[in-house]
Write a structure and sequence with these properties.
heterodimer, A: 252 residues, mainly alpha, 10 helices, 73% helix, globular, B: 286 residues, alpha/beta, Rossmann fold, 2 domains, 6-stranded mixed beta sheet, 4-stranded antiparallel beta sheet, 9 helices, binds adenosine-5'-triphosphate, binds magnesium ion
Amino acid sequence: MRILSLVRITLLMFYRRKALWIASIPLALFALFLAYASPMSPGFSNTDGLVFTGQVLAMFTPLAYAASFSDLMTAGRRTGMDELESTSPLPMAVIRSAHVLGAWVICISSSLLFLVLIAVHQAFKGNGKAILVALAVALVILSPSMLIAMGISALLGALLPTIVARILAVLAWAWLAFYTPLLPLPTLNGGPLAVIGDPIAQGWFHTDPIYAPANGPFTVQSGVISLLWQACIILLLFTGANIASNHIKAQV
Amino acid sequence: MFISIDHLTKDFRGRPAALNDLTVDLPQGMIGLIGPNGAGKTTLMRILTGIIKPTEGKVFIDGQDLSLPANRRNLKRHLGYLPQHITPYDNLSPLGFLDYIGILKMIGNKRVRQEQAHTLLEQVGLDDVMNQPIGGLSGGMRRRVGIAQALMGDPQLLVVDEPTAGLDPEERMRFRTLLAQLGQDRTVILSTHILDDVAQTCPWVCVLRFGRNQYDGPTEGLIHEAAGHTWVTPPIAAPPDNATIINAEPTPQGTRYRIVTDTPPAGSVETAPNLEDGYMALASER
Ligand SMILES: Nc1ncnc2c1ncn2[C@@H]1O[C@H](COP(=O)(O)OP(=O)(O)OP(=O)(O)O)[C@@H](O)[C@H]1O
Ligand SMILES: [Mg+2]
């Protein structure tokens, strides 16, 4: 209950951050355009289209969040809010988790809105489960990728100067999300550890993956593995960011 | 609350000790913490509030050793703190911010939080702006938001670090009155460079210098340090030697100085000391 009130207040803290909206809405619109116009696109008129749109949103919008959240764990040190928060009987980990959840709600809201609009349109056309699919896509495809991008940003921001962290986090996300055979870099895409939802999209929603799977089509289990792996990564990133920022504070 | 500070030392890497073997007992009530820049006031407050740990030594609050996590947690339930430098989340309104602090202080009931927030914001004179974003408020108004948040949850121990810095005279008076009321049934530790604030509100005072305890005791006692040494000179041309000058009043005949010294110039009149005189007398002893 208490964490919910905290999350509610954090929402207020983040929703007035103009930079967040200015960065994420154009990216979301661009992703929507790609999801519609891409040669791979199944269009907006069926469930496959919803899943595909979710995946494209999951590739592009995290770029904004990778750039935005480098000060998630460190801003409080500059403003003195860290000191105030650490005099609360609530553990700092709880307070920070609330901040992350609040930020996440803000991040997902614009993409979710677009997905739901498409789904409502489909529902009127007779696709009874469209809205459920949109919500599921937001939860299992969009959320993990957004949280990973935020976590990378927060961790790098706790370790490095903020501006460097922003750039590196965007590059890291670009590496995770976009793969081209032109660059001699290994990639997680095509395997069960991909972070843009291919294993879940194909394994659970039976759509075509964006990157061809390396070892045969993704199965239900690949989806489960992928989600668990992403959950672990998210936990590790934020725990690491929390520890790193506390440690740096302890040194001064 | 009764605070006992026992051989407290705090070293920051590569600097002289911020606190140096400090031992002092602080009684219940209003306590003024004064001393020059860099004396260690903020460091002491951060240790008392459990934000940082001392390098050596211990703090006991009502006999509870603060080095034990359980005791720190217990203390935090009864603690209000105003850091010296704080920028509240500027996207929130004062009301929203106090609500947030109320949650952090584990006030579960939203109505209770809102009522407290309203009352406190009225007490610090922010009723007109309680719904505007903090980012748009003036520096002094933000300071008052900070004061109000420290009072959320009716804390038994209130630690305020230069609360009146940047307040206009009216607000400072108002805050003094508020503090004096609060100090009747709790412990308030107030650090400040405005000695008048201490003289008006704190019966007990502790003077830090170079991380050491230079004086602790009744405020009267500190004033008494300058008794028999405080003089007002006749109008003269040049400031007197071997004297600490408290203030200088220009007159047509020359300048009239208020000084603390053992060797006043001829014609000086002894006068009753105030806290400034006492503080300066103590400072000039070293
Ligand atoms: N985080 C820190 N890292 C390194 N040194 C510090 C830190 N905080 C305080 N110090 C040092 O400790 C000493 C005491 O500082 P402190 O802030 O406690 O003084 P203060 O009495 O509050 O001074 P002021 O009146 O200027 O606020 C100073 O020499 C300061 O440089
Ligand atoms: Mg200070």
